[in-house]
Design a protein that fits this description.
- The protein is mainly α.
- The protein contains 14 helices and two strands, in the order ααααααααααααββαα.
- Strand 1 (about 385) and strand 2 form a beta hairpin.
Length: about 425
């Protein structure tokens, strides 16, 4: 049993649902690229469109979903979300079970886009509700431990889920992979239904009635709560720099590290291992020494490792940097949730969670696009020497990106001082 029975049930639902989601996402991309549009020159554009749809819906629906999550009973919201997503994915699985040619490919693609949009929208309600539910069922002094379990589970799902998708698709067909995802939501439903959580307290009358008023009240909290504002700025600066790493790392291996492209996968594995260790230990240490302290330390490690990687010219130094990158981001991520629970009033938790997620994703996309465009514009022949240090196009982009990450780390180091002290946090909550 993890922490207590209620959290264990919540965690079981998370494990099954996350693996199902990873299988679902990978299956959709493989199905479109290798089956529905096999050999078509426009297949990459269609696959990209699926990802763009998910990101656009996250940005548009997330903040509004947070308003309703704060109003509604959290357990019922999660149960309704699981049933809705199970039904939506089951529809797509049913179409996949039909004989080949029974439904025209354009219709399948359109249906896929609609279902991706709807399931993403529903997930915007489930995520914040789950965040508040953890706050309700986990004691304050063990929320870091709960976050460690959650972050480690997410990391493991990204490792286990995608490799399962290809064998399922090739051996059994896309319909079974899609059906597996639908069943995962039903398993999550059963686990969450067994949770004996206290009912959500009645919502106090708002000075800003209506969806728009409550949404702006949640946004204003980022202005009045200095620790919340510091977390948001830190995360946005981190993503502004780290997006470049996600976009260009695959090209960095042969161009700057002078290694075969196959080593890119090994680097990713070391990064994942670092995240697993950092996430598992980070939250637990945060319960003892302070969550803000671990966030600040993890950010400094990540910034230093990124600067090291941006100047790496050999594989072994890059591997060390990647392990440190994973350790730093894993330790930081596992402490953000517990710190939010400590500094944000419960009646605002849904809105805060639903704003930070989309903002994080949008900045990451902007960073990836910008990094790719700049690297393309500079070209592989680009060379620059500054103060005796030579730069190529990719290490120049990474160096600038690491400056953003370092700025976020330094800012967090000072702005989050005192966030672990209850006396410092209480006046902020009272004001809100």
């Amino acid at each position: 049993m993890l922490i207590n029975k209620n959290y264990t049930r919540l965690w079981v639902g998370q494990v099954v649902s996350l693996v199902g989601d990873m299988v679902f996402d990978t299956t959709l991309l493989l199905w479109v690229a290798t089956v529905l549009l096999a050999g078509k020159s426009y297949a990459p554009a269609v696959s990209t469109a699926v990802l763009v749809i998910a990101s656009a819906v996250t940005f548009m629906v997330g903040p509004l979903a947070g308003v309703f999550v704060d109003r509604w009973d959290k357990k019922r919201t999660m149960l309704a979300a699981d049933l809705t997503r199970a039904g939506l994915v089951a529809v797509l699985a049913g179409v996949a079970f039909l004989p080949k040619g029974a439904v025209p490919v354009p219709v399948i693609l359109l249906l896929t886009g609609v279902i991706v949009a709807l399931t993403t929208a529903v997930s915007m309600f489930f995520g914040p509700a789950r965040f508040v539910m953890i706050n309700d069922v986990v004691p304050a002094d063990r929320r870091g431990k709960a976050s460690s379990y959650g972050q480690t589970t997410e990391a493991l799902a990204t490792i286990v889920g995608p490799p399962l998708a290809a064998p399922l698709l090739i051996g059994f067909g896309p319909q079974w992979a899609l059906a597996l995802n639908a069943v995962s939501f039903l398993v999550s439903f059963v686990a969450i239904r067994a949770i004996q959580a206290p009912p959500s307290p009645p919502v106090a009358p708002s000075r800003n009635p209506g969806v728009r008023g409550e949404l702006f009240a949640g946004l204003r909290l980022f202005g009045t709560n200095p620790f919340l504002r510091a977390l948001l700025i830190m995360i946005l600066l981190l993503q502004l720099g780290a997006g470049a790493l996600s976009a260009l790392a695959v090209y960095y291996v042969p161009e700057n590290l002078h290694a075969e492209p196959k080593w890119y996968g090994f680097l990713g594995g070391t990064f994942g291992a670092g995240i697993l260790v950092g996430a598992f230990l980070g939250g637990m240490l945060g319960d003892r020494v302070g969550h803000a302290r671990l966030i600040r330390g993890g950010m400094l490690v990540f910034a230093g490792a990124f600067a090291l990687y941006s100047q790496a010219t050999g594989l072994w130094l890059a591997l060390v940097a990647y392990v440190l990158l994973g350790l730093g981001i894993g330790a930081s991520n596992s402490n953000v949730g517990p710190l939010l629970m400590a500094i944000v009033p419960r009646e605002f938790m849904g809105r805060v969670s639903a704003v930070m997620g989309p903002a994080n994703r949008v900045v990451a996309i902007v960073s990836m696009v910008a990094a790719g465009l700049v690297a393309t514009w500079l070209g592989p022949e680009f060379h620059l020497t500054v103060a005796g240090v030579a730069f190529g196009r990719l290490d120049a982009v990474f160096t600038v990106a690491s400056v953003f990450v370092a700025a976020g780390a330094v800012y967090a180091f000072f702005a989050l001082r005192g966030a672990d002290h209850p006396v410092a946090a209480e006046p902020v909550a009272a004001e809100a």
